[in-house]
Amino acid sequence: NAGVTQTPKFQVLKTGQSMTLQCAQDMNHEYMSWYRQDPGMGLRLIHYSVGAGITDQGEVPNGYNVSRSTTEDFPLRLLSAAPSQTSVYFCASREGQGRDEQFFGPGTRLTVL
Amino acid sequence: DQQVKQNSPSLSVQEGRISILNCDYTNSMFDYFLWYKKYPAEGPTFLISISSIKDKNEDGRFTVFLNKSAKHLSLHIVPSQPGDSAVYFCAARGGSNYKLTFGKGTLLTVNP
Predict the structure, then answer these.
(1) Residue of A nearest to B104 (CA)
(2) Alpha carbon B13 to chain centroid distance?
(3) Tens of pLDDT along A42-90?
(4) Least confident of A76-80, B19-23, B90-94
(5) Which of A4, A6, A14 is nearest to A89 (CA)?
(6) Confidence of residue A41 (pLDDT cuts 50, 70, 90)
């Protein structure tokens, strides 16, 4: 098992550009999430999904879109990047309700100039 | 409003001694608590968890204690090893709510 994979590892964008952060898991997990980590802020939930076709907003959803067309993939889209979105982004997955051990990907470091 | 608080940004201990990392929470609906460990340039990894029906859970060198009346939990690492040096996040969830709420993390440094 590869676990949770994320691409790219690093990305630099200019303000206003759009991009998609990719996330995939091969553990057949129902639940997937996107977090951002900023210095002194811990991990904050952006969006999450409890299964294919079902997504919902987390704590800091503005400026981000997600979709879940398959169990394996959960891409995060930045529609118009802003410097405030400079952060490290982590995707996570977990088996299902009652199993709280989340498996995290290695992260994507995004810089918006 | 920060519902999960880790008030110590950093902690330094000597190898072989005990490391105690603390976490406080404010939401009475939280019923499950987890600790994650994170090395630089890697994703967090699950370390240990505890349900609110317990007051202690142990896994090798790691023990988590929960004091519900004080809304406080702590992670004990005995004995501490240099490889334990990492950022430790406390997280909590409540009832059927899927979402995990994380603290800001504590950087543990174990000196040889």
Answers:
(1) A42
(2) 16
(3) 899 999 999 999 999 998 999 999 999 999 999 999 999 999 999 999 9
(4) B90-94
(5) A6
(6) confident
Structure-block tokens of residue B67: 């004091």
Q: Which candidate, A96, A95, A99, places its Cα nearest to that of A4? A: A95
The pLDDT, as a whole number, for residue A99 is: 61
Q: What is the distance in angstroms between the Cα of B104 and the nearest Cα belonging to chain A?
A: 4
Cis (ω within 30 of 0) for the bond into B112? no
Interface of A with B in 42-81 (CB under 8 A): 42-45, 48, 50, 58-59
* E strand residue ranges, A1-113: 4-7, 10-13, 19-25, 31-38, 42-51, 54-57, 64-66, 76-78, 87-94, 103-104, 108-112
Token pair for residue A91?
């995707």
